[in-house]
Task: inverse folding
């Protein structure tokens, strides 16, 4: 079956521009996560959606970052006024509650 | 808060060598522990897991035992192959309320030479 799909796979943007990253989770998965993978920093938790509960936004690094999940399915991570330190691979994962995460291949964001 | 500490990398081994990758954790309660692997050009995938103390997770010849007394979950393999070259992440999931997000270590790159 289809796995977690992320788009675009690569994004190059100029400093100060806004970007939107998309995640299509596995159908039926109630939990959706965004992580950021930076060189030498491992995986940094950003935000977590679980069903209809309020999202856990505790990992968002600044108010330039936001995410939403429409209809309990597709999620969009938005970064406003991008900075060079935002360059990283942004990973999305989905799961059923209490089961292992399934990750997408990520979006590689480069801010020039 | 929760945290995961992995040994510094990268690690380079010859084929058929013994592998140990250390992982220790700090968490409240009784977390579940995981090893995820990221092969070149692919997304992260679950390698193995253990959900309670003294459990041993195993897959593809890899093993890790949940040691509560030493708060560790070291990954081992008796004989590595070139195809094991990848980045390995240790992670934990606490079960506080509805929040079961994973906390990851920094990852370690393993390169296996023929």
Result:
């Amino acid at each position: 079956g289809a796995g977690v799909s992320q788009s675009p796979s690569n994004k190059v943007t100029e400093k100060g521009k806004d970007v939107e990253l998309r995640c299509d989770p596995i159908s039926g998965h109630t939990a959706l996560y965004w992580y950021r993978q930076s060189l030498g920093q491992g995986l940094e938790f950003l935000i977590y959606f679980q069903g209809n509960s309020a999202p856990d936004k505790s990992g968002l690094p600044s108010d330039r970052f936001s995410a939403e999940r429409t209809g309990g399915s597709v999620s969009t991570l938005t970064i406003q006024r991008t900075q060079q330190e935002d360059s990283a691979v942004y990973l999305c994962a989905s799961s059923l509650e209490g089961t292992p995460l399934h990750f997408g291949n990520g979006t590689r964001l480069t801010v020039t | 808060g929760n945290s995961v500490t992995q040994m510094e990398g990268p690690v380079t081994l010859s084929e058929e060598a013994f592998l140990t990758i250390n992982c220790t954790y700090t968490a409240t309660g009784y977390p579940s522990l995981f090893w995820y692997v990221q092969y070149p050009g692919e997304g992260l995938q679950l390698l193995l897991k253990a959900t309670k103390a003294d459990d041993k997770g195993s897959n593809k010849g890899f093993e890790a035992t949940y040691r509560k007394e030493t708060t560790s979950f070291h990954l081992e393999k008796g004989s590595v192959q070139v195809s094991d070259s990848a980045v390995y992440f240790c992670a934990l999931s606490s079960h506080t309320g509805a929040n079961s997000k994973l906390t990851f270590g920094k990852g370690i790159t393993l390169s296996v030479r023929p």
User: Anything to note?
Assistant: The two ends of chain B are 41 Å apart (CA to CA). Chain B touches chain A through 20 residues (CB under 8 Å). The longest strand of chain B covers residues 86-93.
